[in-house]
Amino acid sequence: MKKIGILAVAIMLIMGCKNKKRANENQNDLAMKTTLSTTETKKVQDQEQIQQLITSFFGEVDNRNWNKVETKMTDSVYTDYTALGGDAGFKTPSEILTGWQAMLPGFERTIHQIHNEAIWVAGNRATATLDAIATHYLNQDEWTVFVGYDTEFIQENGSWRLARIDLSLYDQSGNDKLPAQAMENVKTGYIPAFAKANQATIQPVEKFFKALEARNLENILATLNEDVVQEMPLSPNNFPKQLKGVDAMRNQYTDVMDYTQSYEREYLSTNDPNTVLVKYNGAVTTGEGKPYNNSYVGIFTVENGKISSFVEYFNPNILLNGWPGLQPETYSVHQTGAKTDSGVSLQEVTFNSQGVLLRGHLFLPPNFDTNKKYPSAIVTGSWTSIKEQMPDEYASVMAKDGFITLTFDFTGFGESEGEPRQVEDYNLKIEDIKAAVDYLETHPNVDMNELSALGVCASSGYMTYATAQDDRIKKLVLVAPWLHNPEIARMIYDMRPGGTDGLLEASRKAKRKYAETGEMDYVLAASELDPLSAMFVPHGAFDYYLSPAKAAGPKYDNRFAVSSWEPWLTFDGISAGKEITQPVFIVHSESGAVPQGAKHFYGHLKGEKNIVWLNEFNQQQLYFEEEAVNAAMGKVVNYLK
Description:
- By secondary structure, this protein is an alpha/beta fold.
- It contains 17 helices and 25 strands.
C-alpha cells in the first residue's frame, strides 16, 4: 500500500470539506426552491379561493340565495355605497342583506357581470379590485351601472370571507327610476318570479353567437331583422354607440371576421317572452394577434324569429386598451395625465440597474424632432407605487410642455425585474434613479445641461440623495414631498401596533427568514381594515392605492415586504439638503404629508431654492385630481422654463 503524503491528505480533507459544503449548499438550494414553490402554490390557491368567493357572492345575490350570501361575509363588514346614494359604515351581514332585500328582489332580474379582477394576498389578509356591469331589468325596462369595487377579505378558520366592499360609480345608463319602482314592488309584496327559458327567443340569439365564433358574416346577418338596432351605451369616443339597420351591422362586423373569437354565455329569460338577457365573456384575438377579452351584458329582443334590437354593455376601458385603432384617453390610470391625442407619444423602454432590468415609459413632446435636443426629467412617485400611477400623470403632462420625460418601475416593483418583490429600500431606489440618469445620458435628444429630477411624495427623499450624489442632475423638483428622518418616523409609527421598535424587529426577522429560506413575509401595502398594513388609514380617508377609480389596478401589487420597515424607518431624506448644490423647487400643501419635513429640508438648502404652497389641495388630490396635478405642474413648468 502506497503511503500518502501529508499534503495529499490535506488536499483530500479540503476537497472533502468542499464537497460536503457543496452538498449542504445543494440541499439548501433545494429547500429554498421547495419553500418558494410551496409559498407560490399557497398564494395561487388563496387567489383562486378569493376569485371563487367573489364570483359566487355576486352570483348568489343575483339568484336571491340570501343565506348563502350571508355565509360569505365576516361578522362585521364595512360597506360604502355613497356613490349610488347609499351610506357608509360597519354593518352585520344581516343588516346588509336587509337593505339589499328591500330592493333587489323587486326586479325581474339582476346581473352582476364581474370582471377585470386583481387580487393581492398577504398572510390572512387580502384586497381585490374588480369592475362590474350591473344590469337591473323590470317590465321591459332596465337600469345599468358600470362600477368598480374595492374589496377586502380576511381568512378565518381556513376560509376567506368578505370584510369590506366599497363601490365607485364610473357610468350609468337606462331608467334610473327603476330602483324606486323595485323598492315599491318589495314593499307591496310583489316579488317577480324568475321567468322560464323561452327557447324560441334564445334560438336566434344562439345562432348569432355561433355565427360570430364561426366568423361567418352572412350567417350573422341572417339572424337580424332588416331594421335591427344595436345600442352600446357605454362605448367610448371614436367607437359607435348605435348601429341602425343591416347595412350598418355589415360595415361594423366585416372588420372583425378575421378575429378568432369565442363566447362563454348564460341566458336569463324575462317575463317578456320576446326578450332574453345574456351574460357573456369574450375571448378574442384580433387580426393583429392581440388579445381582447371583454365582458358583456346583452339585452336581446326577438321578433318573428330574428333579432330586432339588442343593447350591449361592455367595459369601455378594456375596449380602449385592446381594440385596434383605439387607445386610452390619457397616459395614466385615470383622467389626470396628458390626453393621448395631445401630440405626446409614449415609448416603452428598458435599462439596467446593478444587473436588474428595469422597465420604463419615455414620453416625447408634441412634434418631436429627432434633430433637436430637449430639456428632460426623471419622474418618480410615492412608496410602493408604479409608473402607471402618479409618475405617468406628471410625466405626460410635463412632456406636453416640451420635455422628454422618463418614468420607470423600481427594482422589484411593477414590470421591472428584481427579487424579492415590493421591497422599499432607499439604497436600491437611489441607485435605480442614477441608472435612469445613465439611460437618459445615452439618448441623442436629451440635453444633459437641462436634466431635472422630479420626485412625488416618498420618492422625493430618494431624489434628494440622487441629486446630492450625481451632478448630472441640474435641478431638483419635489411635489407633495414626504420627507422624514428617524425622529419624524418614530413620532408617526410609534402609534402603530408594536410601535417603531416592533416594526424594526419584524423587519430584521423577515430579512433573516428570507436569507435562510428564500421566503419573504408580506403585509398589505394599503388597507382600510388591517392595522398591520403599511398604510392603514380607515374609513376611506386615503384610498388612492385601493380604489380602482383612482390608482388600484392589475399592475399595482398591494403588498409591502416586511423587511422594508428597517430601511424606511431609519431613512433620513432631510439631511441630504445640506449636500445639494443644485437649484431646488418644491410644491407642497400644509394639509399634505409631513409638511414639517419639507420645511426642515428647505432650511438645510444653501443654494438657489423656492417653495410654493398649494394649500387648497391635500396629499391625495396632488396625486391624481386633474385640477391639483395641473396646478402643481403649472408651477413646475413655469419654474423650469
